[in-house]
Design brief:
Oligomer: single chain
Largest sheet: 2 strands, antiparallel
Shape: globular
Distance between the termini: 138 Å
Strand order of the largest sheet: 1-2
Number of strands: 2
Strand content: under 5%
Length: 228
């Protein structure tokens, strides 16, 4: 009986140990599997989130300024548009060139009004603000000057299409003069070459006229230097 009882206890202990081992193995490897699945799911979500971020780029300040100028909302304040024009020029945003070209004749009415001499008690008051440059009256001209030579191809198109006496054409010529301020002769040659490549007779003639105006200005400045 003692021997039988001994073997029975041994068998019971063995079965309990085996049962514990199986349960522990299931818990261990099952947990690893669940953990692996969780990690995979987290990685998938992370990748999916990154893909969403790529497909929806963040709006930057530059795009906001462009949106202001592209908007057809008539309620947009003039100072918001003028600020957008100036900021795009300061940042030299080349992708905004066609948009700035559209605003070549857009006036800063506030600056123009502020520049007018005021009369107080019969006395005309003149301040430094009265000497308002063209870039102050038409901010897009100043913005295009800041961007530099990369605007020239678009300016050529303006001269080709616009009447020479129009504000847009005159402002365009001013921008070209300022871009070539250190060597006006290069500006003359640039416009003369552009006239030979123009696809329309009117466009070619207008470019030649623009080149002639800069040449005349160059000659006038040179003569003044000789006199002085």
């Amino acid at each position: 009986m003692k021997i039988k009882r001994f073997f029975l206890e041994k068998t019971t202990l063995y079965l309990l140990g085996y049962t514990f081992f199986v349960a522990f193995s299931l818990l261990l490897f099952g947990g690893v599997n669940v953990s692996s699945q969780s990690e995979k799911l987290m990685k998938d979500n992370d990748i999916h989130g990154k893909e969403q971020n790529i497909s929806k780029p963040k709006r930057d300040g530059i795009q906001e300024f462009i949106d202001v100028l592209e908007s057809n909302d008539k309620s947009t304040p003039s100072d918001s548009k003028i600020n957008a024009i100036k900021r795009l020029g300061d940042a030299r945003v080349e992708r905004a060139i066609p948009l700035l070209i559209k605003y070549l004749d857009y006036k800063d009415e506030v600056a123009i009004e502020r520049s007018k001499p005021r009369t107080i008690n019969g006395v005309t008051i003149i301040t430094e603000e009265n000497d308002l440059l063209l870039t102050g009256r038409y901010p897009a001209a100043g913005a295009l000057i800041q961007i530099g030579k990369s605007v020239l191809p678009e300016l050529v198109k303006v001269i080709e299409k616009e009447e020479p006496d129009s504000i847009r054409s005159q402002n365009t010529l001013f921008v070209i003069q300022q871009i070539f301020i250190e060597d006006w002769l290069k500006g003359v040659l640039y416009l003369e070459e552009a006239s030979t490549k123009s696809k329309s007779l009117n466009g070619s003639e207008r470019l030649q006229m623009a080149a002639k105006k800069i040449r005349e200005l160059l000659e006038k400045v040179s003569n003044n230097k000789l006199v002085n």
